[in-house]
C-alpha cells in the first residue's frame, strides 16, 4: 500500500467515525428513542474503521469537549427535565475516581480511607505507609526489585509493637475493593502501597525440586496433562496490575486472575478472589509461601507441610536469624493463613506459583439459556464446563417480552470460553480488540455518571437493553470478529475504565449440583421485583472454580459455581433487590464472598457457609490474636 493510499484510508476511516459520532450525539440530545439503533451503528463502525490508537484519540477528543462545566450543565438540563430528584444526573468528571489513591508517608494523622464503593470508611487514629518500594513510579526493572525489603519488614514489626503497647487494633489495607467492612479499622491502619519492593523469581532458600521449575498436573478440556510452573516472589502490597508487569518482565504470567487488576495481591488472596475455570483454583491457591507479621511483632514464613523452603538453608541464613523469622510448614496453619481476611497478621511478602507467558483465544456466543442448561444436564455439568480452560455464562435475569417472534422472547445468555490459543483447532481470524463499544464508552469521563440515568430513564427497557449488551459482546470464530486472541493478561482482565467504579456486585458460591436451583431462584425473584419496577441493570454471571483447601475459601468444600449478581450504582431498586436476593440465596445454602455482600454477617451464617471457621479461629488466635481482630470479625464472633 502506497503512502497516498494509506492516507486516503486513514482519512476515510476518521470521516466515517466522525459522522457516526456526530449523529449519535444529535440523537442523545434531540431524539433519544433512536439511541439504541445508533449505538449499534457506532459499534459496527468502530469495529471496521477504528483501531485501538484511533479509539483512544477519539476518547481524548470527547473528554476535551465535555471538560467545560457549561457543556456538561447543558447536557444535564436536557436530560433531567422529567426525572425525579433522586434520579437526576450530575455529570461530574470524577477526577477523584480516576486518580491513583496515594498516601504520603509523612502524614499519619487526620487521614481518611474509604472502600471503592463508599459504603465503608475509616478515619483512623494513625495511618502508616511502611515499606521502601516505588508505588507511583513502579518499574520491575528497578534494581531494588531483586532485593528483599528487610528494612520495611522491621518497620512493620515496629508498628505492631506500637499498636500493642498502646492497646490498639492494627490492620493492613490495599485497594479497598471489598463491598463489606472486612478491611475497616478505626485505630491504626497500614497502607501497603510501598510494600512492593521485591519482584523476582524465587530462588533463595528454595528446595532444589522447586527452584528451577516443577511439573504440575492440570486438567483442561477433559484431558490431564503436565505443565512446568515456576515460583515468583512479590511484596504483600503489590497491586495486581504491577505484579503482572513484573511477571511479564520475567516472561511469566499469572495462572488465572479476576476480572480487574486494580486490587492488591494480598487483598485478592485474603478474600479468595477468583477467575473462571473448573480446573483452576482461586488466586489464593497459587500462594506457596506467605511471610506475615503477627501478634508480638513475630515474623512467620508459613507454608504447607511439603513446603517449598529448604529448612536447613533457611535457618542458617544470617538475615533470617537477625529478624527472627520462624518457618512453619504445616497444612492447618497454612490453610488458615492463605485466606486470612486480614486478621492473621500483615502479609509482608509471598511466593506465588506462576507459568510461562501464554496466549488465550476467547469466544463469546449468544444463546438461549434453556438450550445451554439442557446441554449441561445431558453431558454432565463437570464434563461440559471443563471442555475449555475457562468457561462462564452471563444470563439475562429477564426475558424481553417485547421482542419480535417467539425466539426473541426466550431468555438469552452469553457463553464465554477461553483456551490456549495454540490448541484452537482450525484457522481463525481473531481480532486484537474486544467489546469496542464498551471499551470506547468506558474511557469517556462522564460515562459512569450517565449510566444510571440511562437505566432509570428507561427501566422498562432493561430486559431489551441487557439483550443488546449481550449481543454487542458476541465475538467468535464463525462471526465477523473472529474471536479475541491475545496474551492471557489482556484476555483475562475485564476492567472497564471509568465504568468499573459504578458497577457493583454481590457473589455467592454453590456446589455444581445446586447451580440450576440457584439460577431459578434468582430469576424468580428478579421477575417478581420487575412488577414493582425494581430491576438489575446487568446480566448475572456463572463462573466455575476448582476446590481450594483454605479454611475460609468459598471453594473449601468442593468445586464451586460462583454466581455474581451485578448492577450499577444509582439505579433505583437494585440495592434492595440485592438484599432480598442475598437473603434468599443464603437460605438456599449459598457461600457468600468475603468481599461482595450487602447483608450483615453473623456467626451462625458464617459457620454454616464455612464449616472450618472454628479451626480458622484457633489459628487466628495463634498468629494475629485480638490485635488483628477488627469490628467486622468481632461482630461475627460474638453475634
From TrEMBL:
It comes from the Bacteria. InterPro entries: ALO_C, FAD-bd_PCMH, FAD-bd_PCMH-like_sf, FAD-bd_PCMH_sub1, FAD-bd_PCMH_sub2, FAD_lactone_oxidase-like, Oxid_FAD_bind_N. It comes from Cyclobacterium plantarum. The keyword Oxidoreductase applies. Coiled coil: none annotated. Transmembrane segments: none annotated. This is FAD-binding protein. Residues 140-357 form the FAD-binding PCMH-type domain. PROSITE patterns: FAD_PCMH (PS51387). Keywords: FAD, Flavoprotein, Oxidoreductase.
Amino acid at each position: 500500500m502506497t503512502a497516498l493510499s494509506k492516507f486516503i484510508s486513514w482519512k476515510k476511516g476518521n470521516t466515517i467515525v466522525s459522522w457516526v459520532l456526530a449523529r449519535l450525539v444529535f440523537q442523545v440530545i434531540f431524539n433519544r428513542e433512536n439511541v439504541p439503533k445508533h449505538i449499534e451503528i457506532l459499534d459496527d463502525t468502530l469495529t471496521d474503521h477504528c483501531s485501538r490508537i484511533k479509539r483512544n484519540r477519539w476518547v481524548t477528543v470527547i473528554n476535551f469537549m465535555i471538560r467545560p462545566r457549561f457543556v456538561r450543565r447543558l447536557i444535564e438540563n436536557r436530560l433531567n427535565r422529567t426525572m425525579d430528584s433522586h434520579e437526576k444526573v450530575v455529570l461530574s468528571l470524577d477526577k477523584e475516581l480516576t486518580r491513583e489513591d496515594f498516601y504520603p508517608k509523612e502524614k499519619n494523622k487526620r487521614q481518611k480511607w474509604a472502600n471503592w464503593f463508599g459504603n465503608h470508611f475509616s478515619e483512623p487514629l494513625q495511618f502508616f505507609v511502611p515499606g521502601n518500594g516505588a508505588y507511583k513510579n513502579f518499574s520491575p526493572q528497578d534494581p531494588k526489585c531483586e532485593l528483599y525489603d528487610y528494612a520495611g519488614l522491621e518497620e512493620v514489626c515496629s508498628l505492631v509493637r506500637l499498636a500493642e503497647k498502646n492497646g490498639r487494633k492494627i490492620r493492613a489495607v490495599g485497594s479497598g475493593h471489598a463491598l463489606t467492612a472486612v478491611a475497616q479499622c478505626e485505630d491504626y491502619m497500614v497502607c501497603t502501597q510501598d510494600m512492593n519492593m521485591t519482584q523476582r523469581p524465587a530462588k533463595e532458600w528454595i528446595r532444589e525440586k522447586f527452584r528451577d521449575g516443577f511439573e504440575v498436573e492440570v486438567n483442561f478440556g477433559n484431558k490431564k496433562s503436565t505443565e512446568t510452573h515456576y515460583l515468583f516472589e512479590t511484596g504483600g502490597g503489590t497491586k495486581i496490575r504491577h505484579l503482572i508487569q513484573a511477571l511479564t518482565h520475567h516472561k511469566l504470567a499469572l495462572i488465572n486472575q479476576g476480572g480487574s487488576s486494580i486490587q492488591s495481591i494480598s487483598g485478592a488472596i485474603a478474600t479468595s478472589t477468583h477467575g473462571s475455570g473448573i480446573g483452576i483454583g482461586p488466586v489464593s491457591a497459587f500462594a506457596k509461601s506467605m511471610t506475615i507479621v503477627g501478634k508480638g511483632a513475630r515474623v512467620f514464613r508459613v507454608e504447607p507441610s511439603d513446603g517449598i523452603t529448604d529448612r536447613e538453608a533457611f535457618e542458617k541464613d544470617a538475615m533470617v536469624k537477625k529478624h527472627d523469622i520462624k518457618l512453619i510448614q504445616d497444612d492447618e496453619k497454612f490453610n488458615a493463613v492463605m485466606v486470612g481476611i486480614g486478621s492473621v497478621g500483615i502479609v509482608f511478602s509471598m511466593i506465588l506459583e506462576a507459568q510461562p507467558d501464554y496466549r488465550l483465544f476467547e469466544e463469546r456466543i449468544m444463546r438461549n439459556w434453556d438450550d445451554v442448561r439442557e446441554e449441561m444436564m445431558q453431558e454432565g455439568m463437570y464434563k461440559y464446563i471443563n471442555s475449555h480452560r475457562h468457561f462462564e455464562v452471563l444470563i439475562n435475569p429477564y426475558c424481553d417480552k417485547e421482542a419480535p417472534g417467539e425466539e426473541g422472547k426466550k431468555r438469552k445468555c452469553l457463553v464465554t470460553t477461553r483456551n490456549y490459543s495454540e490448541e484452537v483447532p482450525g484457522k481463525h481470524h481473531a481480532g486484537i480488540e474486544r467489546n469496542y463499544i464498551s471499551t470506547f464508552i468506558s474511557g469517556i469521563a462522564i460515562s459512569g455518571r450517565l449510566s444510571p440515568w440511562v437505566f432509570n430513564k428507561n427501566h422498562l427497557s432493561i430486559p431489551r437493553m441487557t439483550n443488546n449488551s449481550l449481543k454487542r459482546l458476541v465475538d467468535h470464530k464463525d462471526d465477523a470478529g473472529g474471536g479475541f486472541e491475545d496474551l492471557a493478561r489482556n484476555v483475562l482482565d475485564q476492567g472497564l475504565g471509568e465504568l468499573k467504579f459504578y458497577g457493583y456486585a454481590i457473589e455467592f458460591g454453590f456446589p455444581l449440583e445446586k447451580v440450576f436451583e440457584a439460577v431459578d431462584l434468582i430469576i424468580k425473584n428478579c421477575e417478581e421485583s420487575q412488577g414493582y419496577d425494581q430491576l438489575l441493570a446487568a446480566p448475572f454471571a456463572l463462573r466455575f472454580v476448582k476446590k481450594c483447601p483454605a479454611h475460609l475459601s468459598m471453594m473449601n468444600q468442593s468445586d464451586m459455581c460462583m454466581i455474581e449478581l451485578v448492577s450499577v450504582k444509582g439505579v433505583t431498586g437494585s440495592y434492595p433487590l440485592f438484599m432480598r436476593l442475598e437473603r434468599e440465596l443464603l437460605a438456599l445454602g449459598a457461600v457468600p464472598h468475603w468481599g461482595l455482600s450487602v447483608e450483615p454477617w453473623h456467626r451462625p451464617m458464617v459457620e454454616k457457609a464455612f464449616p472450618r471457621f472454628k479451626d480458622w479461629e484457633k489459628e487466628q488466635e495463634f498468629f494475629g490474636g485480638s490485635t488483628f481482630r477488627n469490628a467486622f470479625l468481632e461482630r461475627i464472633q460474638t453475634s
